[in-house]
Amino acid sequence: MFNRDRWFEIFETIKNNKLRTFLAGFTVALGILIFIVLFGFGNGLENTLKEYFKDDKFNTIFISGGRTSKPFGGYESNRRIELTNDDMKEISEKFDFFIEGITPRVTISSEVGYKLKSNNYTIRGVGPHHQYNEMTIMMFGRYLNEMDIMNKEKNIVIGRLVKQDLFGDEKAIGKYLTGGGRSWKVVGVFQDDTGDNEERTIYAPYTTMQKILKNTDEVDQIILSYNESIGYDGALELEKKLKTFLKNKKKIDPSDPRGIRLRSASKDLKENQDFSDALAYIILLVGIGTLLAGVIGISNIMVFVVKERTKEFGIRKAIGASPKSIIAMVLQEAIFITTISGYFGLFVGVGILSSLGDTLEKDYYITDPYVDLNTAVTATIMLIIFGAIAGYIPARRASKIKPIEALNDK
Amino acid sequence: MQNFIKTYMINIKGLHKSYQMGSNSLHVLKGIDFEVKEGELVAIMGSSGSGKSTLLNIIGMLDNYDKGSYELDNVIIKDMDETKAANYRNKFLGFIFQSFNLINYKTALENVILPLYYQGVDRKKRETKALKYLDDVGLKNWATHMPNELSGGQKQRVAVARAMVAEPKVLLADELTGALDSKTSKEVMDLIQKINKKGKTILVVTHEEDIAQMCKRIVRLKDGLIVEDKKINQKKAL
Questions:
Q1: Pick from A319, A324, A400: which is nearest to B90 by CB?
Q2: Looking at residues A208-214, what average pLDDT do you find?
Q3: How far is A193 from A62, CA to CA, in rounded Å?
Q4: For helices A323-356 and A4-16, what crossing angle results, to 10°?
Q5: Cβ pair A190, A160 in contact under 8 A
Q6: In which domain, by residue range, is B145 found?
Q7: Residue A197 pLDDT grade (very low, low, confident, very high; cuts 50, 70, 90)
Q8: From the CA atom positions of chain A, what is the Rg in Å?
Q9: Under 8 Å between Cβ of A156 and A177
Q10: Residue B145: is it exposed, middle or buried by C-beta count within 10 angstroms (0-12/13-18/19+)?
Q11: Candidates B63, B99, B119; nearest CB to A402
Q12: pLDDT over threshold 70, residue A235
């Protein structure tokens, strides 16, 4: 391998057989280039998919009351089921082991103003854990805390666009907004990746909302997040148990499909994951297919090259070349060409991907296409190895052929 | 006795060779006994199918034989693996073919260098040596030319230089003038005679009577057997 003379001999051969060298190199470079670009696009698609499911935490279950559709336990059907603070408390105690956090949600819509400006906003009464469920990101100040809930403080956290609408460039923290005839102290400003709707929301302690606005302990929704380690099956089981528990507590027919509504992202999560997996498989398949095409291409060329050189090998053998030296010469030349052109294709491919960047995001749903260097280098090495094998087989045959037969081969 | 054996460069006894042609077996050599002493210039003659090329190929270790014995410079040549055969060919034998068999993408000089490359000779040395042998055949000024820029006679002279450069014990020529006109043939044969005069053992396979007459001994083959083996008065090529 490190024989300087052999390298010299190989360079000589390459220099004097430019077309052949170019064809072999071009096939390999193209194979790697296409592999990298396709693989990159596949990864870009996956990125886009991930972006779509970024909104809520996956391990979240939404529970809300509905109307019963069957009479049960002395109650008529079409009874309205209301969830309360008490239900939430019991759930969090009973299912403590599975639950990571729990929060109620009371939603109203109200006019809120600051100085001369005012606007209609969604106001949600929630607990501190809501920040986790909604993946709310604080920009300034803080989120609601347990003290706010306990003391029924009139503290609020406003979305980025609420702040922009009402305060403009002015600082919002510590200022007071008016809403429902009362003043509310802004303690935090948040942003949310989901978009505008979410950022036009105001969060207040649910206890305060219940006391001031409705004077009940009813909640619209109970939102809980479960421990992710229970997995998809565990989540389905938990949902079933929650439903049974609440139906029992609220005296609803166990077979009544209405009454208690449960919505969770675990199914979405499963589907998303399946889709993601399928996509990954497709990408892998495309990658392997491209590589295979490259391998077949280089194999064809190697067979052709060896065939073309059969007579030359015969001459070399007649004047003293051992079969081993013939094989080594073919292999070393093949590996040299595939390595150089393989890495050339790799760098061009990576260059194309990085120059594309996000230009394909809008129309083709390809975000930030990339190939990690490991995959790319592995693919290149694979192609080199297969190219070498593809060269070895005909080279071995050629080296075994009797020089006299090779020489008679006109 | 020992002294006597040593003088044989090639010693062949009871040599048989068959080729398998599908289900038929073609018996090409049917018991050849043949000795060549050092410094001889032997023409092997015969019509096509007489087995003369097969004999030359076996002597050149390009082909195997079935039965009998073959010694080259007192080394038994039998069932050699390819690597060893290549090594022996490189050390003991030089080949000249009818179709020249130069590597077409290498210059005349590079073609002559090649046997030295396989001998593992140092780069500088082999270039000097190859150039000297190219000079011996009168082609020093054509060293950097490609084979397709050379005439048939020049190509064959390059082939002679390539065969000689490894300093073989025996030079084997298979119809070396077959592709050349008579004038060029004579020039090449003149070269062969000069090389022989310096003591080199040379075997020439030919079917041309006038070429055979330029050798010192003629061996005639017919149907796989030697039918005549006689010393002659060598004719000068030029």
A1: A319
A2: 82
A3: 20
A4: 70
A5: yes
A6: 38-68+77-231
A7: confident
A8: 34
A9: yes
A10: middle
A11: B63
A12: yes
Distance, CA of A236 to CA of A264 (rounded, Å): 9
Contact A113, A167 (CB under 8 A): no
Contacts of A14 in chain B (CB under 8 A): none
Task: Please give the pLDDT value at position A55.
Answer: 52
* Cα Rg, chain B, nearest whole Å: 18
Q: What is the mean pLDDT of residues A15-22?
A: 82
User: Can you list the pairs that A272-279 forms with residues at least 24 positions away whose Cβ atoms lie under 8 Å?
Assistant: A272/A49, A272/A53, A275/A49, A276/A46, A276/A49, A276/A50, A279/A42, A279/A45, A279/A46, A279/A49
Q: Do residue B115 and residue A319 have CB atoms under 8 angstroms apart? A: yes
What ipTM was reported for this prediction?
Answer: 0.86
Question: Has residue B16 been placed in a domain?
Answer: no
B75, pLDDT greater than 90: no
Q: Which helix (H) or strand (E) holds A296?
A: helix A266-308
The residue extents of the domains of chain A are 4-53+271-408, 60-264
Q: Which of A107, A102, A161 is nearest to A132 (CA)?
A: A102
Q: Which of B224, B168, B221, B225 is nearest to B43 (CA)?
A: B221
Choose the most confident range, by mean pLDDT, from A232-236, A266-270, A309-313: A309-313
Strands (E), A37-84: 60-65, 83-84
The 10 Å Cβ neighbour count of residue A22 is: 13
The DSSP code sequence of A244-282 is: HHHHHHTT--TT-SSSEEEEESHHHHHHHHHHHHHHHHH
Number of C-beta neighbours around residue B141 at 10 A: 10
Residues of chain B neighbouring A403 (CB-CB closer than 8 A): 62
Q: How far apart are CA B67 and CA B54, in angstroms?
A: 14
Residues of A in contact with B176 (CB under 8 A): none
Q: For residue A155, how many C-alpha atoms fall within 13 Å in the half-sphere facing its CB?
A: 21
